[in-house]
Design goal:
6 strands; alpha+beta; 21% strand; 185 residues; 5 helices
Length: 185
């Protein structure tokens, strides 16, 4: 099974496990815009794409989105990980850090494609970015506030969009303003 196929299956599993919209995390091909390499894939990116809410009939997935990591396939798999992710998520022993002083924003981590830890590390980074994702949309709460209060969690169908809900943040901090479990007067 190819690297790309394994990563796509991993992303599908993460989408299912986190009850995210089907098109919300994807592997995107980055193509060159210059010279004789124009149009040729030079790397890949894993991105979070927040589908429109309410859903549109023809929701188009664009190259825009929140970057999780860049991936380059050279003599191995090189992951470009943001410094915050690198400092938070433990690096597997068999991975190699490539020191690049010219890149202050990313750590370059080299894996052999056959290493299981490669896919575990990719998954840990994707999950970390989902858990820390905040929607560009901001709103007080939706019409489900009483049901959410009773369940003590956000019940909105679009888990990415709902990260912009102020009441969701209250629920996550155990502050419940409505319903059976109300604990804030």
């Amino acid at each position: 099974m190819s690297f790309e196929t394994k990563v796509n299956e991993l992303l599908e599993d993460i989408i299912t496990e986190n009850e995210l919209p089907k098109t919300s995390i994807f592997l995107y091909a980055n193509k060159s815009n210059k010279g004789d390499k124009k149009g040729i894939e030079i790397s890949k990116s894993i991105k979070i794409f927040e589908p429109e809410y309410p859903p549109q009939e023809k929701s188009v997935r664009s190259k825009n989105g929140t970057l999780i990591m860049n991936i380059q396939q050279k003599s191995g798999i090189e992951l470009l990980i943001r410094n915050e992710q690198y400092n938070t998520i433990p690096l597997p022993e068999e991975a190699k850090l490539k020191e690049l002083k010219s890149d202050e924003n990313f750590k370059h981590i080299i894996f052999d494609e056959s290493m299981d830890s490669l896919y575990t590390y990719i998954k840990a980074n994707v999950v970390y970015c989902i858990e820390n994702y905040v929607s560009s949309s901001s709103f007080g709460c939706c019409s489900k506030f009483e049901k959410c209060s009773d369940e003590r969690k956000c019940l909105h169908e679009n888990k990415l969009y709902s990260t912009g809900c102020a009441y969701r943040r209250n629920l996550e901090n155990r502050k419940i303003f409505y319903g059976l479990n109300r604990n804030v007067l």
